[in-house]
Amino acid sequence: MAIDKDAVEQHAEASALRVLIQTVAVLVFEQCGMSPVRVRALGQSLSVEMSDIEIPGASRTDLDMIREANAWAFVAAFSSVAEAMRSDENKAASA
Question: Cα(13)–Cα(5) distance, rounded to whole angstroms?
Answer without folding.
Answer: 12
